[in-house]
Amino acid sequence: MLHIVACIKQVPDTKIIKMNPKTNTMDRSSAPAILNPYDSHAVEEAVRLRARYGGVVSVLTMGPPPAVKAIKKCIEIGADEGYMITDRAFAGADTLATSYALTKALEKIAAEVRPIDLIICGKMTIDGDTGQVGPGIARRLDMPPLTSVNKVVEVNREECFAIVHRKLEDGYEVVRSTLPCLFSVEKEINEAPYSPLPNMLKAARYQPKIWSVDDLPGIDRTQLGLKGSPTIVSSVWAPQKPQGGKLLDGDPNKQAEQLLEVLLARRELFAAVTETATGGA
Predict the structure, then answer these.
(1) Which pTM was predicted?
(2) Buried/exposed code over 174-204 (b: 16+ C-beta within 10 A; e: otherwise)
(3) pLDDT tens by residue, 14-62
(4) Are 149 and 29 within one domain?
(5) Count of structural domains, the chain
């Protein structure tokens, strides 16, 4: 039976979040917490693969206790089971420490629940934009990472292979991989529909399995949280808002004349600066 695990994260809605002008850090209290949009497509794709091939869809997250809401959202989408690791020992983790903690949880799921055939992650999280956790998990589990996946052609558990399309700048490439493997998926891989009422009712009652650091066998605490995070953020600041431009008035012909004058003036200024910089050579 095909077992797919989607790794997900609860993130602040970056469309709403504000920056603290005194500390130059994100004010996470200023925005609601949501399921990372890329991860919602990862879960949806896992559910669609289950519909095609049968099996079980599990979701896994690391976060504070309120992240249970993200798991419930995944149950709404159609996931079967949810697992969360939460502990103060995980706080402050960068992508390296996060991939380590999630790997240990995945190993526990594979050993105590059922073997894992496929792991699906979103391409990246909107609060970090690194895209490093998925490949980090794959490296630790010694399985092939297939990144930027925008179409799953086939997953064959019996013959242990998967075929996908990977998004490129000028098209896509077709890749065949052995199973188990890890996908990190693009948003365009699918369109998440509205959750059906039975799923919503199930999600409202559902309680995921919650593990602390002590529940993960063989874990090295020095690789967790801030201790296990070599990444250092020296400073963060909000970009300055652009100043208002000049509005062109009049009919289209007059506007075109005004725009041409501006461009010519810019061209003359650029030429003067270039001549000065090169000494007239």
Answers:
(1) 0.82
(2) ebebebbbbbbbbeebbeeeeeeeebeebbe
(3) 777 676 666 555 666 667 899 999 999 999 999 999 999 999 999 999 9
(4) yes
(5) 2
